[in-house]
Amino acid sequence: MSTAIEKTDVLVVGSGFGGAIAAYHLAAGGAKVTVLERGPWLKSNDFEHDYKLGSSYTRAFDFVVGDGMSVLGGNCVGGGSVVYFAAMPRAPRFVFDRRGSIGRRMWPASVSRDTLDPWYDRLEESLSVTKQDWSDVSYAGGLWAAACDHAGRTANPLAVAIDNSKCVNCNWMMAGCRFEAKQSLTVNYLPAALAHGAEIRPLHEVQHLTRTSEGNYRIHFDIIHEEDYRLRNGSGVIEAKIVVLAAGAAATPVILQRSETHLGTMPHAVGRYFSGNGERLNTAIINEEKAAEILGLSRGDGPAYAANQIGKGPTVASWDKLDGSLPEYSRYSLEQLYFPPGLGTILAQAPDATGPTWFGRDKKEILKNWKSWLTIFSMTEDDNEGVFGPPPATGNAHRISQQMLGRGNLSYKPTRNTWHGWNQADAEVKEILEKDGLAKVMPWTNDLVGAYTVHPLASCRMGDDPRTSALDDRNELRGHSGIFVTDGSAVPGALTVNPAMTIAALAERAVPGIVQAARHRGVPVTYGAPTPTGYKSGTKVDLPLLRTPAGV
Amino acid sequence: MQQAEATPIPRTTHDATLTLEAFADTIVPGEKRWPGDRSVAGAATGGGSVAAGALELLRWDATGIHDGLDDLAALANDHATQWAEEAGVELDPTVPPFVSLDFSQRTELVARLTRPDHPEKEFWVLLSLFCNMAFDSAAHLHTAQALANGHPGLRAMGITQPDADGLWRFQNHGYGRRLARLHPDTTPSGSPA
Question: What distance in Å separates the CA atoms of residue A353 and residue A463, rounded to the nearest whole number?
Fold first, then answer.
């Protein structure tokens, strides 16, 4: 039997924004690229409109319950981009000057809104990010806008990566977009990476890394059963000169923790400083008569609203508190969101309940009003207080259900600062939506599964200070040259807006450095590929190549 | 495993079923299925979690909770017995202790078991989660089929029927007009400045 180990130039762990972007550029530049993705490879026709366990709705997701924080993330080829809502705002300028829990600027000096803007520009082109018009806004977004206006606030249609000409407003985008309206990575970076020879292997869950005497890395993985993720169908090893870790902020640090006995001491910040992007949810039960009377809204066919089911996730956000002159922990955006049944309905609380708020008689009454629910998503500034405990036996969680549900080792005890932001956001949502009896509002309970984030960040973050950051400002893991981290775990802290655009921009920004490192290790690769949908370069003027480190 | 028709259901499984139904009915209450229904308390109109198929979902191995259900039911009954002793409530020996409690007593006990400081909280929250999912998403059924069969949860929530191909599409999706002033510091591409 041959004991030869398979070899590749660059091994990418995860195929979400951090993985797909790196894979595309490196493959286009001439490197042999292999992508290992823990989840299945679902094609557009696999994206079902079905809540049944085992449908794409549960196959594409991972819900990991921790101690004080639960994380919902993507688990398929395309990662978060398959299940996300495609809201693509740039992070506001003040975010890059945040000090957070360390009392000094937490971002690397080389990263600011100005230095990131060219990369954001590139993403807007490659992911077809467009500014929505009011005609694109869903009923739920319109209602939120009208309520904000009524309460003296502003509200903006979001910039999104959605082709509205294909969108049917089915609100199933969390199960993957059947209509290819959503610009997931499966319709841009990943097919472009494949066209340049990259190989993507689904259902390969990386467990840990080891190092060879030549300084290469060996990536140890298990093969996961395609339907029951609790089952494993073997394991394997691949050797690579460069490793790009992009398994998501709830998994990347766990792989590194498990690798520590093989690779040596990890930076202190691996598995620490986790941020839930300061996220918090409120559910409002809209009074339909008041919505008609106070806001003058009408769907023309009866109710003023009653349209919770219709739309495309979030379409409108209020940014009045994205004001850099306000103190830290009091800045946030308030975004209309759709949360489909099954994934959080249990956490919504019944306002004015005489008994329990999340179950029982009063809860059932608000479930009967589900069509008139409006969900508001607050993205605040938290304190990076999440810490990962010892890693589980495999993966990043002990899996309970065949898909989706697992128990992880993330611990998150919200600080007073975090609660301050949440409380302020809750109060403002209440003030806006309860004005003149428009609605009754309650935040989701934290008592069942802790706080809830769909945007895990910062668990292996970049920075200038080795004591509080795991990566240098080129996304390379401190003390372990040749390992780069390009997913949400590299983002230093909460962004006050949806983070996909910033995660992707940071990944684009990291690529020249990864190319340089690969060249130093003898990989014949160059940097300079155009945006992945190359046809656009002919119709839009392609962006100039950005300044790259010397020698690339 | 399917029971052979002639085999009587073991008492423990029967008790577990009644207990789990009573627990599910506490999470999303419903109307009694028949006049002498003991597990469903009848605390709300329309079908609740039990009519929505809670037991079918819980006993499906895909959930991962299926193996421990009899133990959970036994534990719920132990807690019910203890709760009844503390509260001076006399239990009906013909049904499992949890089932013997009335709806408000069951509610009080479930609230206690799911409190953040309860040592078994995770189990009870997990059980509650699936009881809720049976109602709010019919996670044991194909959604279109569940709707066509009048699933009580999806129907109560007002979820519409999909198109003939099983996919949802909404032609009318918004109010189509400007409804607020834009934030003054918005970039040309629609981001915060």
Answer: 46
- Rounded mean pLDDT of chain B? 94
The most distant pair of C-alpha atoms in chain B lies apart, rounded to whole Å, by 75
**Residue A284, both tokens:** 């409002």
Whether residue A1 lies inside any domain: the answer is: no
Distance of alpha carbon A519 from its chain centroid, rounded? 30
**In whole angstroms, what is the distance from residue A455 CA to residue A478 CA?**
24
Name the band, by pLDDT with cuts 50, 70 and 90, for residue B10. Answer: low
Question: Does any domain span residue A544?
Answer: no
The parent domain of residue A423 ranges over 6-539
Under DSSP, the state recorded for A87 is B
pLDDT tens digits, A259-275: 999 999 999 999 999 99
Q: How far apart are CA A208 and CA A260, in angstroms?
A: 9
Cα A546 to its chain centre, rounded Å, is 25
Regarding pTM above 0.90, the answer is yes
How many Å apart are CA A54 and CA A71, to the nearest integer?
A: 19
Which residues, numbered 116 to 135 in chain B, qualify as contacts with chain A under a Cβ-Cβ cut-off of 8 Å? 116, 122, 125-126, 128-129, 132-133, 135
Check CB contact of B156 with chain A, cutoff 8 Å: yes
Rg (CA), chain B: 22
d(CA A28, CA A525): 8
Cα atoms in the 13 Å half-sphere on the side-chain side of B73: 26
Query: Is residue A109 domain-resident?
Result: yes
Domain holding A244: CATH number? 3.50.50.60
Interface A-B, measured as beta-carbon pairs within 8 A, has a size of: 233
Helix axes B69-87, B11-27, angle to 10 degrees: 70
Residue A534 backbone dihedrals phi, psi, to 5 degrees? -60, -25
Calculate how close chain B gets to A361, using CA atoms only, in Å: 6
Q: By the CB < 8 Å criterion, does B168 face chain A?
A: yes
* Residue A440 contacts B, CB cutoff 8 Å: no
Contact B179 A142 (CB under 8 A): yes
- Put simply, the answer to whether B44 touches A361 (Cβ < 8 Å) is yes
Structurally, chain A folds into a number of domains equal to: 1
Q: What confidence tier does A552 reach under pLDDT thresholds 50, 70, 90?
A: very low
Nearest to A395 by CA among A61, A19, A64: A64
Q: Is A262 inside a domain boundary?
A: yes
